UniProtKB/TrEMBL annotation:
Keywords, ordered alphabetically: NAD, Oxidoreductase, Tricarboxylic acid cycle
Protein name: Malate dehydrogenase
Species in which this protein is naturally found: Corynebacterium atypicum
Ligand binding (substrate): 93, 99, 132, 163
Residues the record marks as active site: 188 (proton acceptor)
Top-level taxonomy: Bacteria, Bacillati, Actinomycetota, Actinomycetes, Mycobacteriales
Length: 324
């Protein structure tokens, strides 16, 4: 028997990230090869025509799992009955900007989208905010959807996590799946804390495989500033790697994983993170839910680094108080 199709919404569907994301999604990389999907592409009115072109190409790809493709500029109808939402649509930063510089332009996008999710999304709705500044935009969407369980709103820190794995694998000379128990705490910004305190390769602590000076002076800033480095070198913000990380995040959320991954979730107050802030934390995924890795003993160094993103997210929240 065939499963009934799930409605999946992608916002910013005419943009760069969506142009990679939609093909992975349509191929079944999130729900698996037995789950048909109905795609809804939400864009601003000026980009509807370009979105029609994207839909034409999706059709031309003849994906067996795609039951329908709907294009709209209306958030209420887009999210009605949705089981999954990738909130990608937002301006990207250019050279020399911080992601928080986007807050005044992008923050307001997430109020009507959160309200529309509140009004009509399916009971199993899962939301991933990709548009920057992702953590605070996710907070805005979540606060605009008071009837939806808060933990259904997440922000993307998986790209930071994947960047950390790849930098470590290159340094150590191993493959990324060999590395376990890495996390990137915090904000998707330069205050984030890529943390190798618990990381292992074949059971060996990573802290014994790399120099502390490399860890502090090269690895942490490299991972934290990788988005800016991509913009410098590529001339545009990351797109295919962001799409790939979004797929990883949603796939693991739906299908589960016992490996540590990083997801930005509303904090439950653990680890000195103010309750409610959408904060990158170590999780596994079981029974369709992210579960925080509990019981870690933090050093003073870890606590200080974690506190830096808490303070920054509190400032971002204050800057959008009128939207909350
Ligand atoms: P892009 O400019 O190529 O595409 C953005 C699209 O969003 C445009 O087509 C635009 O019309 C659309 N859009 C704007 N407002 C919208 C709205 N209210 N509803 C629906 N669509 C809307 O940008 P991109 O490269 O695809 O990046 C999108 C966002 O993702 C940016 O904010 C970027 O900074 C962010 N990003 C986040 C991460 C992360 O790790 N969290 C990684 C990469 C990029
Ligand atoms: C990234 O990390 O690549 C994205 O958030 C884009 C950016 O502005 O850095």
């Amino acid at each position: 028997m065939t499963n009934s199709a799930k409605k999946v919404v992608v916002t910013g569907a005419a943009g760069n990230i969506a142009y990679s994301l939609l093909w992975r999604l349509a191929a079944g990389d999130v729900y698996g090869k037995d789950q048909p999907i109905k795609l809804t592409l939400l864009e601003v009115p000026e980009a509807v025509k370009a979105t029609e072109g994207v839909a034409m190409e999706l059709n031309d790809s003849a994906f067996p799992l795609v039951r329908s493709i709907e294009i709209t500029d209306d958030a209420t109808s887009a999210f009605d009955g949705a089981s999954m939402a990738f909130l990608v649509g937002a301006q990207p930063r250019g050279k020399g900007m911080e992601r928080s510089d986007l807050l005044s332009a992008n923050g307001k996008i997430f109020v009507p989208q959160g309200q529309a999710i509140n009004a009509g999304a399916a009971d199993d709705i899962r939301v991933l905010v990709v548009g920057n500044p992702a953590n605070t935009n996710a907070l805005i969407a979540q606060q605009s959807a008071p009837d939806v369980p808060a933990e259904r709103f997440t922000a993307m820190m998986r790209l930071d996590h994947n960047r950390a794995l790849s930098q470590l694998a290159e340094k150590i000379g191993c493959s990324t799946p060999d590395i376990e128990n890495v996390v990137v705490w915090g904000n998707h910004s330069s205050t984030q804390f890529p943390d190798i305190s618990c990381a292992t390769v074949d059971g060996k602590p990573v802290t014994e495989l790399v120099d502390r000076s490399w860890y502090l002076d090269e690895f942490i800033p490299r991972v934290a500033k990788r988005g800016g480095e991509i913009i410098q070198v590529r001339g545009k913000s990351s797109a295919a790697s962001a799409a790939s990380a979004a797929i990883d995040h949603m796939r693991d959320w739906v299908q589960g994983t016992e490996r540590w991954i990083t997801a930005a979730l509303p904090s439950d107050g653990s680890y000195g993170i103010e309750k409610g802030l959408v904060y990158g934390q170590p999780v596994v995924a079981r029974d369709g839910k992210f579960e925080l890795v509990e019981g870690l003993e933090l050093t003073d160094f870890q606590r200080e680094r974690i506190a830096a993103s808490v303070a920054e997210l509190q400032e971002e929240r204050a800057a959008v108080a009128d939207l909350l």
